Amino acid sequence: xxxxLERIVxxxxxxxxxxxxxxxxxxxxxxxxxLVEVISEGLSGWGEVTAGEHPFYNEEWTAxxxxxxxxxxxxxxxxxxxxxxxxxxGRTAHIRGHFMARGGLEAAVWDxxxxxxxxxxxxxxxxxxxxxVPCGVSIGIQDSxxxxxxKIQTELxxxxxxxxxxxxxxxDIDIVRQVRHKFPNILLMADANSAYTLxxxxxxKQLDEFNLMMIEQxxxxxxxxxxxxxxxxxxxxxxxxxxxxxxxxxxxxxxxxACRILNIKLGRLGGFHAAKRVHDFAQAHGIPVWCGGMxxxxxxxxxxxxxxxxxGFTLPGDVSASxxxxxxxxxxxxxxxxxQGVIDVPTAPGFGYELDLDYLKSITEREDVLP
Length: 371
Hints:
Elements: E1 3-4, E2 7-22, E3 27-40, E4 43-49, H1 62-77, E5 81-82, H2 88-91, H3 99-117, H4 121-124, E6 132-134, E7 136-139, H5 145-157, E8 162-166, H6 173-182, E9 188-191, H7 201-205, E10 215-216, H8 225-233, E11 238-240, H9 247-255, E12 261-264, H10 266-269, H11 272-284, E13 289-291, H12 298-307, E14 331-332, E15 342-344, E16 354-355, H13 357-362, E17 364-370
Parallel strand pairs: 7-8, 8-9, 9-10, 10-11, 11-12, 12-13
Antiparallel strand pairs: 1-5, 2-3, 2-17, 3-4, 6-15, 14-16
Helix pairs in contact: 1-3, 9-11
């Protein structure tokens, strides 16, 4: 379904978190998020740039998004005749990195195209066979083990099927031991966010006794080879996140046996086109995948739900309820998780939720219409 984008609207919003979220590299109290609206023939599609406020997860951060989209991406996208949303990724492939900025716009185009076709986004990307997606939850580093255990108990009562806890040196083996002792039978995983090196292999091997689903990205954000060496030394499956930035990275990691599981994030990979390629390759090689989260607002959360309907997403992802993070989301109603720990996949065209435009306007700090 050919189309041409006439305008791109950039908006930066600020949303306070219900509770701080801490990883091995930072603690976050509020999110500054760039939203992308693409417009063609009177219809709008919406995307979210998932970069954080600082260049700690990768090289992108909120303040870097605006000039990249305005000066480099938009001129290549506006007033160009596209045969389909899948062509957008290649149109900006000459830009080195900056996948989150490019992916936010690319996701908006997929949303626009699905609205033009009158079908749910999940079906438009090739998923949608399942009516519900299973949900896990990610819990950041807390001020005490007791506080962490209390939060885990709350999330289990809410129905979440899998618990992910953040770890770092000094907050790892003993913490996991306490959690596993308290909850011996839950699906449990640990996320290190690149906090360790290969010299810590013997230390990380202690995690084998806790029957974890996986340890996520224990080593450097740009490393694959050391992960292959580590995976040969430990029984706990390694899941790769930060270092899988392209489909080729996924192919290399699987060929080197650097992981047994992959986390797929739309922003990290640059949108649906590349995410689907990673999904397809992993599925063909028997590697399960799941959808990771980046503290998204409702727009990014809705895109993650659509992505999670692809058949290879066999593990509960980080797609959780809006109320876990926001007192008020920019979609209405917010994403809800059932007592059984699943989210109903929306059936309306596009990403399937209504935007709360009044609230969106009230929290917008910056806006620019291109061209």
